[in-house]
Every structure is written in structure tokens, then in C-alpha cells.
Design a protein that fits this description.
globular, 56% helix, 140 residues, 9% strand
Length: 140
């Protein structure tokens, strides 16, 4: 899809900018932590209407998906109390946030007339984590 590394970086940054603006349009902020370790998770903080994204994440290509995921927690009204209530509830909330992130990325594609031959190409282009491929397979 990309001819050069520079094109890939520009494309990723355009998606990130769009996601951040989407959050702002819905009264949620996105900020980046540059002090986190590469395996520290990003988090959403509903009490501050903010998602904090690990800018040092081990796979930088996953950052757009992560932003969408954390915005999903905020927009869907997930709370820390609900998250900590039970493992089953946590799993359901994580799935919903993953689905929301995929919704946002497909919305981005629709708005910008970006089309993919199959779900795998979409997943690779947007850095969808492999443990979320099952969601794409279900929709295919």
C-alpha cells in the first residue's frame, strides 16, 4: 500500500490526527505519554474525559487502533468500577472497545475513500493487533 517509509508515517499521522479530532468533537481528549515503557498499556480516564496513549508502544503501527480503543472506552461510557467488577465484564468491555476502534478506522476509510481487497490487508495497513483479527473474521 505504501511506497516508502515516509508515506507510511504520513498516512499513520493523518489517521492519528483524525482520531484525535474525533475525540475532541465528542468532548474527549487524547494525550501521549513519552515516559512509559514500551509494554505499558494505554488507558482511558473517564473522570478526566481523556485517553492517555503510550507513545513508546512496542509496535508504533498499532497506535491508531489503540487510540480508537481508548476512545471507545470513553465514548461507550465504560467506568473503572465496571472494569474492575469482574473478569467477564472486563472481557466484554475490552471487546466493545476493540469493536469501536474498528468502527472508527472503517469510518476513516469510508470518509477518505480508502478501500481494501480483504480484511487482512485492512488489518495490516492499520496495525490491528493479531489478537483482534477474530473480530474482522466475524464481520467478513
Amino acid at each position: 500500500m505504501y511506497q516508502t517509509v515516509e508515506q507510511k508515517i504520513k498516512a499513520r499521522n493523518r489517521v492519528i490526527r483524525w482520531l484525535m479530532n474525533y475525540g475532541l468533537d465528542h468532548q474527549f481528549g487524547v494525550t501521549f505519554s513519552y515516559t512509559a515503557e514500551d509494554d505499558d498499556p494505554s488507558e482511558s480516564f473517564p473522570e478526566y474525559s481523556t485517553a492517555v496513549i503510550n507513545a513508546n508502544w512496542k509496535n508504533i503501527d498499532e497506535i491508531p487502533f489503540i487510540i480508537g480503543h481508548e476512545l471507545g472506552h470513553l465514548i461507550l461510557g465504560h467506568s473503572r468500577k465496571d472494569f474492575d467488577q469482574s473478569p467477564a465484564k472486563r472481557i466484554r468491555m475490552e471487546r466493545k472497545a476493540n469493536e469501536f476502534s474498528l468502527f472508527l478506522l472503517t469510518e476513516y476509510c469510508d470518509i477518505h475513500d480508502i478501500y481494501f481487497y480483504n480484511w487482512l490487508t485492512f488489518a495490516q495497513s492499520f496495525g490491528i493487533p493479531k489478537d483482534c483479527y477474530y473480530l474482522l473474521e466475524e464481520q467478513a
